[in-house]
Please model this.
Amino acid sequence: MNAELGTRNPERTYAAAGVDIAAAEDNVRRIARHVRSTHGPSVLGSFGAFAGLFHLREVRDPVLVASTDGVGSKVLLGIQLGHYELLGRDLVNLSVNDVLTVGARPLFFLDYVGLHSIDGAVMDDLVSGMASACRENACALLGGETAQLPDLYAPGHLDLVGTIVGVVERGAEIDGSRVEQGDRVWGLPSTGLHTNGYTLARQVISGIDLASDPDGRLGQSLGDALLAPHPGYYRLLEPLLPRLKAIAHITGGGIPGNLPRVLPETVSIELDWGRWSVPPIFAFLQRVGQVPLDEMQRADLRRRANARSACSLPERRRGWSRRAASR
Model:
């Protein structure tokens, strides 16, 4: 019976099933130069090993900080417009910002790319973007995984996930516990949606030409406004870290959903929402999509536009917002 079954079935190969090992090996060779460009003396071993080695130096009492996140459905816009390098940069920068919230400097980054099949040019752009952002943040691209999953992803589709590990000296962690009445809140400039709210935004702009400026108010194409990069704030905040009491990375949930995460229970924050300018893309999405204000705030699509990272400083430092108040 087994012999009979064997004669009925054609010879099967991994490539015929949709997984091209030769393309995977070529991809490793192609991206190697990007990965190695991020390596310094702390990276041990060779690229392509089963695991990455990192020598932690110059830290007396280290606390390791780790975070995993993804670019989300912004990937679909990036695919549509062919801006893969930007997606790679976004993945690193959003991860750097997450570990920055506790005062950590980034050490190394690992990526996961799940896709239908490997396109060498696409992977080259993705990893080039990751490597550029890693170099800007003094972070090693230590390793990653590229998974060909034709049964899970449609042709041309992919998903991006990254894991970052950082370090902070024990005792220097920023956890919000020292925030008190009278402290000032500072917001750092945003470029736009960053990597949140795209599921709703994509519904709003469905059918609109992404190469156009639909109402003449964006000052750029709709596609460029939507794909504005997610900036990394580490270099900007690094000199201030010893003075900061709390840092919030304003992502999904907007200001209402993220600032309370870094506050003691006895303190609340009072903001003057009119003290900063809002990039035009937010007003456009709200107007065209007829999205209620509270939904814009919940979906991270409104009024956090220039408050992507918010930091609490002692009261003597003046900022754009009102001071923290006792509850």
